[in-house]
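Our consortium's second objective concerns turning raw sequence data into structural hypotheses that experimental partners can test. To show how far this objective has progressed, the report includes one record in full. It was chosen at random from the queue rather than selected for favorable results. The single chain below, 152 residues long, was entered without modification.
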Amino acid sequence: MTDTTRADAAVHPAIEATAAVTMACCSTWDANPLIAETPLMRAVLDGYPVAEGHALIIPRRHVEAFSELSPAELVDLGQLVGRAQLASQAHDWTIAVNDGALAGRTVPHLHVHVIPRRLGDVPDPRGGVRRLILGDSPDPWLLKRFKSREVR
């Protein structure tokens, strides 16, 4: 846990809950089916998938934040994201990182989600990750986008 996280633990319950998880997090995904691996990273199927083929890319080294990855780990991460995409046989993907407790991460070990997206998996996929903050409707974002084009 970073010093900032420790200092903020009293400020937000999500941080405090994440801080309570022990270093057992590094073996959390050992039982998950393996998709591919490198000496630095593993790609496994998510134990709690939100879509068929939902994968996690996980550094072998204990890393809590994306910014802590080495250049070599970043290369392997990119390779395994691609391999997870191919394995899922989907057409599109959401690739996401909950980087810290306030971003929604509940396990204090960095992991990247590769979520296959398929036609009809949600009623309206417009807006993508903006919906995490803006809510159900992508329209406020789209309206702002279109209005900015009209001004030009």
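The partners drew two points from this record. The CA atoms of residues 12 and 95 lie 26 Å apart. The chain has two domains: 3-121, 124-152. Both points have been shared with the crystallography group to help prioritize constructs.
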